[in-house]
Amino acid sequence: MDNKKAAFKQPEKTKNTPKKEGFVFSFVKPFPEAAKVPLPPEPEDNLGPEKQFNKFFESKPNYDQDSEEEFFTAEDQAAEHTLYNKYEERIRPCIDLVDSLRALGIEKDLSLPAIAVIGDQSSGKSSVLEALSGVALPRGNGIVTRCPLELKLKRLPEGQAWQGKISYKNMTLDLQNAFEVDRAIRQAQDVVAGPRGGISNQLISLEVRSPDVPDLTLIDLPGIARVAVGNQPKDIGDQIKNLLKRIIGCKETINLVVVPCNVDIATTEALKMAQEVDPTGERTIGILTKPDLVDKGTEEAIVKILQNRVIPLTKGYMIVRCRGQQDIHNKLTLAAAIQQEKHFFENHTHFRSFMEGGKATIPCLAEKLTDELVKHIIKTLPALESQIHDALYKTSQELQRYKRGTPQTESEKLFYLTDLIKFFNQEISQSTRGEEQLFEDEVRLFTKIRKEFRTWGTILLECAARAKKNVPGKVWRYEDRYRGREFPGFSNYNTFEDIIKEQIRELEEPAIDILNNVIRLVEEKFTEVAKRNFANFHNLSRVAKVKIEDIREKQAADAERHIRAQFKMEKIVYCQDDLYIGDLNTVKAANALNGSPGATLQSQIAPKDPSVVVEMVSHTSAYFSEASKRLANQIPLIILSSVLHDFGENLQTSMLQLLQDKEKLNFLLDEDSEAAKTRNYLSQRVDRLTKACQYLREFSLL
């Protein structure tokens, strides 16, 4: 008989041999002696539990009952998993979605729905996990599970052989059959956590591929220890608790809390920890194990727990009887253990009703677990979808900083460098026009420059006010020292020119300061643009920085030369007659409107005649008004022309000239290794998140 086919070899039917179905997991090779272990009898008239049992297990072909004997052999192992039917019928779309996301590697970015088993040391948690998954896990006293064991069950098409592999510390080992699982896990734990009984938070991943398992992820966690044994760290208890909280605290994880029936439930650390991370019990299922070890007369206490009357959980409690250590020693197969468990509960006075109510046996646990898992998946999908979209957006934004990967051929490199420089030049051009894209709390370059020009306007106003205040003293100083045969009251043009020239000289250095402030802002902006565009190419970034500094010096010198030439021209006192007369009339009209300044001046220069001073103040104010208008616009125009526009244009031209020197392509595109790694990581993350969004859209159409 083909040992890959899930079939049962039936015994010959006799009057004393009732019909019996056996269920074992094809991917767990039993010991040959297991064939000698008789299955417990099954009453023919008890159809209720049988129907409940068959909800989870497919019926096998009905072979000739009169010609075959009922027994198990290593070659005729059945391929039945307790979650298989439910997977096929009800949760396959959900599990397929989560499996697809997990296959993409979404767990690197987000948490996916999973099942974790926790319990105090030697509580029987690994036995529960073994019964649910069909994989024989390490057993023994003390801390057997010393690392989180991620058990990935992957369903293969019918007819394909069992496959397995175990991964840890960047190593992956293929397993030839299920019999190697126990030894492989123990060896992996020795490598990861050391051979002296320590624990580790590093994950060991065991992947099982078979036609007879559903796509499901189960996580076995270390048992909670209270006392260090042997060479274990003194704080091993705290280490285990911290490890468990990190995993069971994830909202996408369903927690199976395993508690032996022969201990006080109120003293179990596992249940306390589950309540801390899941106070409402929405993600917690209590699992009572070892019911065969309950002392006579204490069954009612277990009944109260199962009735949710002791420590209530929203999802309640269930009770199971898995293989014990003696059963393992006797080489009891998983199939026989399932039948034995069924027989135990059917004939138990106190627990029979819980089996009938779907709260006892591994098959009932499978049904409960399946229902809870599918509801949990559906419940978490909206939040998961939102998290995937948010992660995709943020990752895409971050990837923009790294652009695409560096090409290999010379022509590709030239095109790539051209694109880099083109994007850089576009951003420089936008900055000079005041149209650049802003990031977070950034302020436009032109806005900063305009603020400097407002400062220049304030300087001009202050200079005019200061000159008006100082004119009387300068006029009388001339009168006292230089007036010759002129009669009093005649304005001296030389005095007028001297006053104007002195005012102009006072403005020259402040104008140079404004120039330096603006060119500093422009240099900072252009350097920032270079860093953003060439962040991954240190040589190209350095070349751009050198060009920015060189052009800055040239444009600063050019702008300063123009500004000083402007002030040299301003020292030539000149204004169109009509403009000057207009300003003079405006000043005199303002004086008349505000009252003659003679009284104020008289108090400053008495007992001298103030008329000559009043006239001089009017003339200097009129001329400086026109000169201020010129300087208020001309200095900013010079700065904008040389320091902003010419700077930007010359920088763009200079960067384009890099394309002419093909010998420097490799030098300019020499990329930082860390940047390349980051870009590849982000690119892969964007790819898998994009595919994840596609899977979610397809799932929503089902």
From TrEMBL:
SMART domains: DYNc (SM00053), GED (SM00302). Its main location: cytoplasm. GO terms for biological process: defense response to virus; receptor internalization; synaptic vesicle budding from presynaptic endocytic zone membrane. InterPro entries: Dynamin (IPR022812), Dynamin_GTPase (IPR001401), Dynamin_GTPase_CS (IPR019762), Dynamin_N (IPR045063), Dynamin_stalk (IPR000375), G_DYNAMIN_dom (IPR030381), GED (IPR003130), GED_dom (IPR020850). Pfam families: Dynamin_M, Dynamin_N, GED. Keywords: Cytoplasm, GTP-binding, Nucleotide-binding. Residues 109-382 form the Dynamin-type G domain. GO terms for molecular function: GTP binding; GTPase activity; microtubule binding. Residues 613-702 form the GED domain. Gene3D superfamilies: Dynamin, middle domain (1.20.120.1240), P-loop containing nucleotide triphosphate hydrolases (3.40.50.300). It comes from the Eukaryota. One of its GO terms (cellular component) is cytoplasm. Belongs to the TRAFAC class dynamin-like GTPase superfamily. Dynamin/Fzo/YdjA family. This is MX dynamin like GTPase 1. It comes from Junco hyemalis.
